[in-house]
Amino acid sequence: MAFSQFFMSLFKRGQTQDPATCIICEDETFKRGQAPATCNFCEEETKIKWKCTNCDVLMCAKCKDKIHAKLKNSKDHNVIDIKEIGIYRGEPDFNVLKCDIHSGQSCVMFCTSCDTLVCALCIGNTHNGHVLVEISKGFNIRKEKFKSGQKKIEDKIGNLIKIKNEMTDVNMKDSAKYKDLIQGIEAQNVKVKNAADKYTDQLKSELNTKWRVLQTEGD
């Protein structure tokens, strides 16, 4: 199994759980129709932020600092952001990693120079002199790269949403300007019509006056 496949399989476990099971705590408190989980300490806050894998509890940000931090030996506990639950599933079993090149050989190190797993034969044949680290460290390197890439994607999505909102705001302002212009034209049209009607009435009045004068002189 390639290291990339192994890493992604660990991450995807959190996304392939039974829909009726919470992918955060693997408990059945998130079944459809049920209320969201609350902090295991205050039992009020629903904005869960942290999980202690040692205590197996979900916590809000306040209780993490006010309660969990005061527990005995809590400084040695593994507290992770719930966003990392999909990545963290306890200590992975690196013994299942087999070399893709040398059949029957297990991978024993991670080559940072080539960004790949290597077995003992690989080290002697093609990776001699390369920078080699323990597989667990290589896993953490990959995980940090993944998280960094994920953060960049989230930032880009955030920027796109911001641009979309700004464009929507501009469109709304343009729409408002359009409506104002239409109203202004209609108002001006009313003024022109009123002025034309007034001038027409004035001409008719003057014509009627002259006609009456002519009629009188004719008599």
UniProtKB/TrEMBL annotation:
Keywords assigned by UniProt, alphabetized: Metal-binding, Zinc, Zinc-finger
Record-annotated B box-type domain positions: 34-82, 94-135
Stored PROSITE patterns: ZF_BBOX
UniProt-recorded Gene Ontology molecular function terms: ubiquitin protein ligase activity; zinc ion binding
Matches recorded under InterPro entries: TRIM45/56/19-like, Znf_B-box
Listed transmembrane segments: none
Gene3D superfamilies: Classic Zinc Finger
Record has Metal-binding as a keyword: yes
Cited PANTHER family: BONUS, ISOFORM C-RELATED (PTHR25462), MEIOTIC P26, ISOFORM F (PTHR25462:SF296)
UniProt name for this protein: B box-type domain-containing protein
Organism, as annotated: Mytilus galloprovincialis (Mediterranean mussel)
Taxonomic placement: Eukaryota, Metazoa, Spiralia, Lophotrochozoa, Mollusca
